[in-house]
Amino acid sequence: MRVMPVRGAGVCPAPQPEHVHTRPALGSRVQLMGAMQGTGYQDQQWLIDRDGRFLQVTELLYRVAEQADGSRALEDIAARVTATTDWSVSADNVRQLIEQKLVPLGVIAAPGDPRSAQDRASRAGKGRSPLELGMRARVLGPRIIAPIAKFLRHLHAPPLVVPVIAGAVAAHIWLFSHGIGGAVTDVVLRPRLLLVVLVLVVASAVFHEFGHASALTYGGGRARGMGVGMYLIYPVFYTDVTDCYRLGRRARVRVDLGGIYFHLIFAVAVIALSLVTGQEWLLLAAVLIDLEILRQFTPVVRLDGYWLLADLTGVPDFFSHMGPFLRSVLPVRRWRRGRLPALTPLVNVAFATYIAVTIPVLALLSVVMVRHMPGIVATVVHSFEAQSTAFSAAATDGKIAEAALRFTEMAILALPLMGVANLIYALGRLASTAARTGGPALRRRIGTRSTRRARRAGNARSQGVGYDEALRARGRAPT
């Protein structure tokens, strides 16, 4: 039996009237989702859906919330939690958890205003790390995505996956033995074909997103939306597959690989079309799609490879959990709060290895980017001006195809400039937050999420009595 410690007065909130939470109840937009499956934690973690945002909490917090139905007094909740868990808690313990944890999280309704705490918790995480998706705009909602994903989900059935993968392997063996010399020659001789190749690559990226959505549907979840945004300095499509947090590990891995799987299907279709029509230039599109597939496996930023590694290890999100993990393993007394619940030994090693590899890589990439950014921007601006002049000349001469190609190239050149502006804005927000609240706020903000802010409080030495974590909205962003 574990006995919950009573916190000292130094961490208690301001005194409140005794009747404040005599019969607590869940917020109006809160749903208890049950245990997290396939995690790397030693102790079971639990999920709560707060207005579409998943919170990771300990069993004690979850059981208290489970008993808070608006009809039970604090004494009744304490008795039921004690009877159904390994914890021995009192009514004062329950009041403490509710006032210090569940109300600020928006899980328990605030007295007199059942929605205010939820609204405050929802607004708490509007700051954004540079490693998160920015300038996002949802294009498709679940009502449009659902029927398409439901139709495509059959492609994830094992009897179809095996022959599809075998066909993809055979098609690519032929492709790389055949070569793309003829495809490159076609595009050089007819530059307008490059525009068609780009259209095919973009279409494959859209199909990639439906791979994630259909894989989620196959596993019993539902995609919440698709859209566009900026990631670091380049534009991306994304699919909100946050619902996969409540699925098992195998289903989450299927979602992670679903986009790459659909990219392979699209590449095979392009190769087949080239063979049927005799159009060699189509093979260039297939090769570009293959390069995008390889890029997706990059684990140091939030691409498909990142989420795949996270789900294989059972760590929900490396970047957001990095701070609590370091506070858990490093012997720094100032870091006693906000530690990560204990991970299994193998996952501990994997997480430490990931940090040891990723941080230097990101630091090196940041230095290279900052060092070469002025030259890149100057080159892009010069190229944009040259393409603008060529576009004007083509439009004046009535060369529609060439004008369209020049306009497309201008748009492509403009996108990195937008990405640079987006990155500078995100860094400026971080610096502004640090200036207002001090250095520690900056360290906290770097590991948080744009719409699912992590709220880390609690003590690992008491087995994560009060640990809570707002799980990141999982968006897949391929290109």
Q: What is the topological layout?
A:
Blueprint: E1 2-3, E2 30-35, E3 46-50, E4 53-57, H1 59-67, H2 74-84, E5 87-88, H3 91-102, H4 116-123, E6 134-140, H5 142-152, H6 158-178, H7 181-189, H8 192-218, E7 225-231, E8 234-240, H9 249-277, H10 282-296, H11 304-313, H12 318-329, H13 345-397, H14 400-437, H15 439-446, E9 468-470, E10 475-476
Parallel strand pairs: 1-5
Antiparallel strand pairs: 2-3, 3-4, 4-9, 6-7, 7-8, 8-10
Helix pairs in contact: 1-2, 2-3, 5-8, 6-9, 8-9, 8-10, 9-10, 9-11, 13-14, 14-15
Please mark out the parts with pLDDT under 50 across 5 or more consecutive residues, or reply none. Answer: 3-19, 437-466
How are the strands of the largest sheet arranged? 2-3-4-9
Radius of gyration: 26 Å
End-to-end separation in angstroms reads: 52 Å
Overall geometric form: elongated
Integer count of domains: 2
How would you characterize the largest beta sheet? 4 strands, antiparallel
Query: What structural class do you assign from the helix and strand content?
Result: alpha+beta
